[in-house]
Amino acid sequence: MRTIKFAALGVAALTVASILPGNTANAESVAEFYKGRNITVFVGLSPGGLYSTWAQIFAKHFGKHVPGNPTVIVKHMPGAGGQKALNYVYNAAPKDGTAIITPNSGVARNVILKRGNPKYDPTKFRWLGGWGEPSTVLSLLKHLTPVRTLKDATKQQVILGAISKSSITYLLPAMYNNLLGTKFKIIAGYKGGSKVRLAMEKGEVQGWSGQLAGWVSRKPEWLRDDKLVHLVQLSSKRSPILPNTPLLSELAKNDTQKAMFNFLQSGKGDRATALPPGVPADRAMALEKAYQATIRDAAFQADAKKRKFKTDPLTAVEVLDSMKQALAMNSATLAALKKALGGK
Question: What is the tens place of the pLDDT at every residue in 150-171?
């Protein structure tokens, strides 16, 4: 009799456990949830640029690695240098695993510098990983200006295009003006890198501070035909494409400047993909696995190569750690950086 009582008790315990909040034993599976659904990949810039092109290639292959094989679509939400899309996905988008964002550069930088009205915590996004550290480069069309070095730019005005005043495309040249004495006139308001490159073709602006990959994928002939001059690059090391272009950190005049420049040229989070906070853990993990599988998929790699994209996969932990490190900047360096960028 005692055994029977314990058995009955065990059944009752299992029954109660199965209906307790958070128990997923009898919950809808990840594959069941995603079958027949759409996943939307948000891009904070207009179509045609680096991030838009990446998202389109990624969306083509991502669904086959997600349990249930959902349809993956790309939605552009330009505004405030990418902040509009970030704020939307973090605060208003569905938290069920059907909304993903591939934010453009500066996710943590904009928060610590309080630029563009960020309404999110970079460490609370559910990062899926990244596709490599970018190299940001300040490039000019040679036939539009005689300027060939940053020192030349201290003597002659150069007109640059930028996405918005909260974007790194604006903040970096503004800092060069303040710290290095350059005379860049920065025109903000372009809806992505493709729009700035078009403005350069038309002669509206003479250059811009954007990612090197944008030139490689969208204007490789300009690189091939030596139509561009590159004044400075930002990355952990010089790009093999630009072995003679100095890193920003190499131009530092003191330890404070070096700390600031290292912060600005650290970019592990600048090519990453994330979910909003609150997505169920099983779906988030499935999407992380699917992301990592996608960027290693041979068919994806072939498509990326056709568009001149080079990938160097980063884990979700690496991206999250880069966000935490950026937000841990000491107050003295932060104050100096804000001043250099024209803030208070």
Answer: 999 999 999 999 998 888 899 8
